[in-house]
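wait is this the right file?? whatever heres the structure
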């Protein structure tokens, strides 16, 4: 057997493929590539077209919005109540602790006394500034950052204060009243554009 016979038989077994022949798969592939190059084409859905129609029942929308606002006001009142109750509780316990230490009924190490004084100081965690800042941050968050709702949020804060006072027997410690006064002033400044919204840190 000669080498020529083998190469000749192989060359006849395989026919050359024309470069002009295009299969259906190649055509589909080239179309998908060209469609990618064309960019994104917006095709509105039927739901979008029907959504463009005018709203006919404004009273149900207004009712829903009022319900949402009432819910947010109630949430703020509950938060104020809880926060002031905690502040009053902390203040009362610390006041009692100081009284007991002063009268010699109990002995406390100096670091505990220092920490307690720091906690209820004007700039302490349970002091007027930080507690009123937390109240204002909550009110602004519940209003959705809308300063036009400040008066309603102030009313909710005051109502929460009244609820907390009632739970405490009608009167909260002075630190709580000063906290509400500070929070009200901060909310009024925000409403009047004199300050920017508070953010929780």
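ok assuming it is, sequence goes like this
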């Amino acid at each position: 057997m000669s080498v020529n016979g083998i190469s000749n038989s192989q060359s006849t077994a395989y026919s050359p493929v024309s470069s002009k022949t295009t299969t259906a798969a190649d055509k589909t592939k080239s179309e998908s590539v060209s469609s990618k190059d064309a960019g994104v084409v917006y095709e509105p859905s039927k739901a979008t077209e029907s959504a463009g129609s005018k709203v006919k029942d404004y009273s149900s929308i207004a009712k829903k919005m009022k319900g949402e606002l009432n819910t947010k006001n109630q949430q703020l009142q509950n938060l104020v109540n809880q926060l002031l109750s905690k502040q009053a509780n902390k203040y009362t316990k610390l006041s009692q602790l100081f009284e007991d230490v002063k009268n010699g009924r109990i002995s406390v190490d100096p670091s505990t006394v220092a920490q307690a004084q720091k906690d209820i100081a004007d700039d302490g965690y349970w002091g007027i500034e930080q507690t009123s800042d937390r109240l204002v941050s909550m009110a602004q968050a519940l209003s959705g950052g809308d300063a036009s709702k400040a008066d309603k949020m102030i009313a909710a804060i005051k109502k929460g204060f009244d609820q907390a006072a009632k739970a405490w027997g009608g009167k909260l410690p002075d630190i709580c009243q000063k906290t509400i006064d500070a929070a009200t002033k901060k909310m009024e400044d925000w409403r009047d554009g004199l300050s920017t919204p508070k953010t929780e840190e």
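Confidence is low (pLDDT under 50) at residues 7-15, 32-38. so i think its the right one actually
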